[in-house]
Design goal:
This protein is an alpha+beta fold and 444 residues long. 32% of the residues lie in helices and 24% in strands.
């Protein structure tokens, strides 16, 4: 679940040991970064997605660092002793590869687990400065490091949508931190020279973000962007793509340009009522069903996450023990919302292993929802992993399914045997094997 999108500048001078006597000139930015870091800590994320302009930039598409451990230091600024480490979340990396394999704009995966092997990729200061402030708050989160590509804003926005789907499938609370400075031409003597239009660009961008006017950002006057000499706009566009379809409120925490470069700190928070929450849908469906004796009508306008099609399982547990579980391997309804709603009622009333759930049991019943990826046919059991993949076995017209990461299922052979038994397929009978991943949502 996406908890917050942060907008952060990255001047090394706001690192106290580096800035020293100059630090006071950027006091608003320092205070803003501390405030943003506290907000992120309060959101209790388990993952972070970093988007930066200063990693390896590729013209073909965004670059994703695909090594398990990323390291860097501020040696180029004279402080090699200040070091930053960042762990890549390999499961999220794999999900992003899956989500973007058919996209027109494909990310470039760089590193020992990528499609372009780099022996070593150091962290850039665009990532290290925000990470430094998070670590000062005691946060040391794994996640993904992404550098934008020199692609159109619309293409990068769509990439952000794919990134959101991958992160949602991961099933952990996460935040996005879009690193970037605004105009580098605010005053005479600024790093990129002076342009009177630098301040105009910064003001427009701050206003557009304040009003959540995404279309205006995507249609930004290109001449104004070029004259401003900015470095962060494409980072922000990818982050905005991750908010697509979700109402959000903007909080401009601080803005200043003491050295001729615009430093913006902002927090974009999804509307809690609008956050994708399939377990909430399943529970409200059952509450209305028990109250009115029929399934409730779904809203005419669904969020993008609920409007698409996918298979889904709804599981009910009481005191940690299964009380009902019904699902669909592949979508059979008009949309995911309908899939979840109907399967919730079936799990409560039509699982043949259990008596129907009673109305007074619902309050003490825990609900989880698993949303399935499309089935992928595989050639051998060696391509399975019971913690990562669910399995569907098929022999003729008989088929059996087992979800991934189930307690007590620790080996591939166990997983296949249980799924085969459920289908009535005996040992030695020919099998077709299919695997899938799930995004698991549990009630908090």
């Amino acid at each position: 679940m996406l908890k917050l999108v942060g907008i952060a500048p990255h001047p090394p001078i706001i690192i106290p040991a580096i800035g020293r006597g100059e630090l006071e000139k950027a006091a608003k930015t320092v205070a803003g970064m501390q405030a943003l870091s506290r907000r992120i800590k309060e959101a209790r994320p388990e993952l972070i997605i970093l988007i930066t302009p200063h990693g390896p930039v590729q013209r073909e598409g965004p670059a994703v660092l695909a090594s398990q451990l990323l390291e860097g230091s501020f040696a180029q600024f004279g402080f090699p002793q200040i070091k930053i480490n960042f762990q890549t979340d390999l499961k999220l990396l794999e999900l992003l590869q899956q989500e973007t394999k058919d996209d027109l704009l494909k990310p470039i995966f760089l590193g020992d687990r990528g499609n372009l092997s780099y022996s070593k990729v150091d962290l850039d200061h665009g990532a290290m400065v925000p990470i430094y402030y998070l670590q000062q708050e005691g946060l040391d989160l794994p996640g993904l490091h992404i550098t934008f590509g020199f692609n159109s804003y619309r293409d990068l926005y769509h990439f952000g949508q794919s990134l959101r789907r991958a992160a949602d499938r991961r099933g952990l609370p996460y935040v996005v931190l879009a690193s970037g400075d605004l105009s580098h031409r605010l005053i005479p003597g600024a790093p990129a020279g002076y342009s009177r239009r630098g301040a105009e660009f910064d003001q427009k961008l701050v206003d557009y973000l304040s009003g959540a006017e995404v279309e205006k950002i995507l249609d930004f006057d290109q001449q104004l962007v070029e004259e401003a000499g900015e470095c962060g706009l494409r980072s922000f566009v990818i982050a905005l793509g991750m908010l697509e379809g979700t109402a959000f409120k903007s909080d401009i925490i601080s803005y200043e340009g003491p050295f001729g470069v615009g430093y913006l700190v902002a927090a974009l928070e999804p509307d809690v009522a609008d956050i994708f929450n399939p377990t909430k849908l399943a529970r409200s469906t059952l509450e209305q069903y028990f109250g009115q004796g029929k399934a409730p009508a779904l809203p005419e306008q669904l969020s993008p996450q609920l409007a698409h099609k996918a298979g889904a399982f709804v599981s009910l547990k009481k005191e940690g023990l299964l009380r009902g579980c019904i699902g669909t391997v592949e979508p059979v309804r008009q949309n995911l919302a309908e899939e979840i709603s109907i399967n919730a009622i079936s799990a409560a009333l039509r699982d043949p292993r259990f008596p129907p759930l009673q109305k007074d049991e619902l309050a003490t019943t825990d609900i989880s929802v698993d949303i399935l990826s499309p089935l992928e046919k595989i050639e051998s059991k060696a391509q399975l992993d019971p913690k990562k993949y669910g399995v569907l076995v098929r022999s003729g017209s008989r088929s059996g399914l087992l979800l991934p990461d189930l307690e007590g299922v620790n080996s591939i052979d166990e997983q296949v045997a249980i799924a085969s038994c459920k289908a009535g397929i005996g040992p030695g009978e020919p099998l077709e094997l299919f695997r899938f991943t799930v995004t698991r949502y549990k009630e908090e």
